[in-house]
Amino acid sequence: MQVRWSKWSPRIALIPAVVITAVAFVGAICWTIYISFTRSRRFPEYEIDFSEWGRQYERLFNDGAWETSLQNLLVLGIGSALAIVLGFILAAMIEREKRGEGFFRTIFLYPLAVSLIVTGIVWRWLFNPDLGIENFLQQLGFENASFNWLAAPDTAMYGIILASIWHGSGFYMALMLAGLKGINTEIWSAAKLDGVSFWRFYIEIVIPMMKFTFLTCAILLSLGVVKAYDIIVAMTNGGPGSSTWMPAFFTINAYAGRSNIAYASAAAVIMLLITAAIFIPLVLVTAWQTRRREAQQV
């Protein structure tokens, strides 16, 4: 009896967590999908007009602001990928030069301790022509210097990308540093004895060995980009116009601004599909590589 109880007690202890997950997570997703097929406005309505069941999605993909949001999602994703590259370079420099490792690791990780709202506000000040970098450069004598990126629709997203890279590069540096420390030191010694150049060593040996770390960083980056909202609000609030709208900003604005919960639910469902389209292949590749490595070891 004691053996049976020890076998079932962990499963019984997990029941509250499973119920909460099923109701709060899976249930919320199902409810959102259902509402997206209704004509709900400020408050939910549960009657579906099957003659126009896809009305919200048709409106969504004919909305210019939603198209802008998807374009900005792609731009932010590509631009923010530079944070992974920068994080790897920083990690390689710290790993190569052992002196001051703790100091530099703390310095580069410091932006991560600051919320994205605070990060956005600070960078908005930096881009302010009266208070920030532009004013500083003009005081140095560069009278034609212009750094007011957030005021122009063509450059506002680049300012957000720059702030995102500053905020996230330290985190990816920490992940890359952990991956570098997991590489056998004999490999480093053998490469030095063989006279392998610095760049060739990292490109042909280190990076392939850290593919799982890069996949992890890619997954975390993609999830952060899809749900990007607070830094948009802090820096531009979606402006100028709708030039810096993101899917999360569009979704919240559809409900809070337009008072249309069905329309916001449709946008949220598309966000879920985008996340699944990015997340699931990366997870499957990671699982496949793990099984392949385990099979090779056997």
How many β-strand stretches?
0
C-alpha Rg, in Å?
A: 24 Å
Q: Mean pLDDT score, rounded?
A: 88
What are the segments in which pLDDT stays under 50 over at least 5 consecutive residues? none
Concise structural overview:
The chain has helices at 2-35, 55-61, 64-80, 82-96, 101-109, 116-127, 133-139, 156-181, 185-193, 198-209, 211-226, 230-235, 247-256, 261-297.
3D architecture notes:
The chain is mainly alpha-helical and 298 residues long. It has one domain (64-297): Orthogonal Bundle (MetI-like fold), CATH 1.10.3720.10. The chain is built from 14 helices and no strands. Helix 3 (64-80) runs antiparallel to helix 11 (211-226), helix 4 (82-96) runs parallel beside helix 8 (156-181) and helix 11 packs antiparallel against helix 14. The chain is flat. The model has no long low-confidence stretch (mean pLDDT 88).
Please describe the structure with a list of short key phrases separated by commas or semicolons:
single chain, 298 residues, mainly alpha, MetI-like fold, 14 helices, 0% strand, flat
What does the secondary structure layout of this molecule look like, with pairings?
Layout: H1 2-35, H2 55-61, H3 64-80, H4 82-96, H5 101-109, H6 116-127, H7 133-139, H8 156-181, H9 185-193, H10 198-209, H11 211-226, H12 230-235, H13 247-256, H14 261-297
